[in-house]
Amino acid sequence: MSDFKSMVDILEESKTKYPVFQHLVRDFEALPRCKGLSLNHFMLRPIQRIPQYRLFLERYLKYLPQETAEFQDASKALDIITQVNEQSNECLRRGDNFSKLLSIQNSIFGNFEIVKPGRVFLKEGELMKLSRKELQPRWFILFNDCLLCTTPVQRNLLIVHHELPLTGMKVSIPQQQEYQNEFSIISVQRSYTVAAR
């Protein structure tokens, strides 16, 4: 399940490389029993089935007397399905995180390593960096281990200015009401005062 994205990529690559295969896939998807759905949709079916089994077992248990052997068996089955569901969801989350890391990696101009073991994407967005002259737009990307300060240079391309480790980092918010959307990011390497829109 965690390999769903790579399976889809291989499928798309195979369709591009082998026109006959692409034709067969199109013929399959055109069959009435496919109801206009793509092959990618059918590849997701096993992942979608697990939560359905869990709901079925939960409903089923409501109507069984607790003292029966059947209730015990159904309870064990529900425990197993719940564990499988949690593992499936965790694999999907990791796959989504890896896809996001790759997407960010592809948007970085130059040689800057984004994909690292254990790194998790948390949030990203534009903040205005306060400088002596003017407000400068910066695109910040927050991971579980660092904060990247970048500048958009072209469409979908970013230049990394600083990678600030989260260890020892402090964020301070001014007490004055008129500076509500400003805050300071203070790290060992660099400090910024930024404003949200």
Automatic annotation (TrEMBL):
Domain of life: Eukaryota
Ranges for domain DH: 1-91
InterPro entries associated with the record: DBL_dom_sf, DH_dom, FYVE_RhoGEF_PH, PH-like_dom_sf
Pfam name, any one: RhoGEF
Protein name: FYVE, RhoGEF and PH domain-containing protein 6-like
Species classification: Eukaryota, Metazoa, Ecdysozoa, Arthropoda, Chelicerata
